[in-house]
Design a protein that fits this description.
The chain has 16 helices and 14 strands. The relative contact order is 0.17. Helix 6 packs across helix 15, helix 10 runs antiparallel to helix 11 and helix 12 packs across helix 15. It folds into two domains: 281 residues, Zn peptidases (Aminopeptidase, 3-Layer(aba) Sandwich); 111 residues, Alpha-Beta Plaits (2-Layer Sandwich). The chain is globular, with a radius of gyration of 24 Å. The chain is of the alpha+beta class. Helices cover 46% and strands 16% of the residues. Strand 1 and strand 2 form a beta hairpin.
């Protein structure tokens, strides 16, 4: 293990140097969060996560070093090849059958009990391992993904999800070996979460089913164009999202007697155009992306069904709900104008999560210790530890993102890099850092208490933050209509 006291000295004041007031995206967010941010600042000053992480990562610890060595041995002896295998055989969300068969077989071979098809999701699974010493210790959770991106040609792992399961397995199996050898109590849970790139978000479905309940900490990895960590606060990687389908129902007729029909496609197109006209009404940070996946069966038949599928995005969930109401009103207006009906199906929600300084700084300390490439010194906007913030509001956790490709995310080039040395190097470091964080949470009761205390405090502050946003937007969006 690299001794890192001197390496970390230059980063000692990174958290203090960047004001948390800049953790939010919009001016409204910053205004609404001002008092909350002051309290987050005070919390971070009290726990001093940068100094704590330096001390923990810089301490000589032969047991920890052996765990990290086992991660490397597992990666080089099979997990790297598994990552490449999944990468060469991409399957899109909810259809990851071959990947799940392989991944669950590997869990069983390593002593994990496996439950497949959990929460009603065919390609979701949970791997469970209980320490022979007993289970009245921490429950460590590892989130793994394995879905590929959709494309107009063929699926591909442009976000490097092919590596996440092998990386997580390397960390989980190394920790299980340590617990067995040293008679450490506790449990390990591996959460196989499909379809990160396809809605509805599987982690919300699994969360609503209570599958994460009882887990004390969660950790995951993800490919990245830099080695970075996030500020403590509230946020999500890709903005808050509402996934909504607007299903227009009309009446079919032959086009030679179209007046007997009610054209659902006409309604859909009118709605689609109305949404484009709404864009200047929304704040500039808004993002609306949509397609019309269903629009009829033949040119000479009046369509009785048409579907518009939108992703509505905004940096905070309060203004997003205002956008959602306005777009829904436009759908109802289009239906009314064309004599059709519309059913609005909100099928997916991605929301802000809670980012903890104690865990983020520990990840960063180990990234420096292990000489991770392309380290970004400035902490980034809070992003939670996975894309579905509901889970982060209940369970503390962290995401590990070591540089694994210079190519843009969601690109063919990043997919190719996942099977090259640049990707392999980053993924191995991900696994080692994940194992180090799990090791400390498992063996250091004082650190575990710090993480849990920080999470409790941040969860309470999150409620204040949402209320502050509602007050900040009250005059602008109250009720969604002028004068109401």
């Amino acid at each position: 293990m690299v001794h890192i006291r001197s390496m970390l000295f230059a980063a000692a004041t990174l958290l203090a140097a960047g004001t948390l007031a800049q953790a939010q995206t919009t001016e409204t967010e910053r205004a609404a969060a001002r008092d909350v941010v002051r309290q987050i600042d005070a919390l971070q000053a009290r726990i001093n996560p940068t100094q704590l992480a330096q001390r923990m990562a810089g301490k000589k610890d032969q047991e920890r070093d052996r765990v990290l060595q086992r991660v490397e041995e597992m990666w080089l002896s099979g997990m790297r090849d598994l990552s490449d295998h999944i990468g060469k055989n991409p399957e899109v969300g909810f259809k990851e059958y071959k990947a799940v068969d392989t991944l669950t077989a590997i869990l069983r071979a390593n002593g994990f009990k496996v439950d497949k098809g959990v929460a009603g999701l065919e390609t979701a699974f949970i791997g469970s391992w209980d320490s022979p010493a007993g289970v009245d210790g921490p429950t460590l959770g590892v989130i793994v993904e394995y879905d590929a991106l959709r494309s107009t040609t063929e699926p591909f792992h442009g976000c490097q999800h092919n590596a996440q399961s092998p990386v997580g397995y390397s960390a989980a199996f190394a920790i299980a070996e340590f617990m067995r050898a040293k008679n450490v109590k506790g449990r390990i849970r591996v959460f196989g979460t499909p379809a990160e790139e396809v809605g509805p978000p599987s982690k919300v479905t699994m969360w609503e089913a209570g599958l994460f309940r009882g887990t004390d900490v969660l950790i995951r990895s993800h490919g990245s164009g830099s080695t970075a960590r996030s500020k403590a606060g509230f946020g999500v990687c890709c903005l808050n999202i509402n996934e909504v389908k607007y299903i227009f129902m009309g009446r079919s007729s032959h086009q030679r007697a179209s007046w007997f029909g009610r054209n659902a496609l006409t309604a859909a197109v009118q709605f689609y155009t109305a949404v484009d006209h709404l864009r200047p009404t929304f704040r500039p940070e808004a993002s609306i992306q949509g397609v019309i996946p269903e629009g009829g069966v033949a040119p000479n038949v009046v369509p009785d069904r048409a579907v518009v599928d939108y992703y509505l995005r905004y940096p905070d969930e309060v203004y997003l709900e205002h956008m959602d109401r306005m777009v829904a009103d436009a759908a109802r207006a289009a239906a009314l104008a064309t004599g059709t009906d519309v059913r609005i199906e909100n099928y997916g929600r991605y929301r802000d999560g809670i980012t903890l300084g104690s865990l983020e700084e520990l990840v960063f300390a180990y990234a420096q210790a292990l000489n991770a490439p392309d380290i970004s010194s400035e902490a980034e906007r809070p992003s939670g530890y996975e894309e579905t913030g509901f889970v982060t509001r209940e369970i503390p956790g962290v995401g590990v993102s070591v540089y694994s490709s210079p190519a843009p995310g969601h690109s063919l080039e990043r997919w190719m890099d996942s099977m090259k040395p640049v990707g392999h190097t980053g993924f191995l470091l991900d696994g080692k850092i994940m194992a180090a964080v799990l090791y400390h949470f498992l063996t250091d009761g004082a650190f575990r208490a710090t993480v849990q205390d920080e999470h409790r405090t941040m969860a309470a502050l999150f409620d204040q933050y949402i209320e502050g946003l509602k007050q900040a937007y009250a005059d602008e969006i109250g009720g969604g209509k002028v004068g109401r």
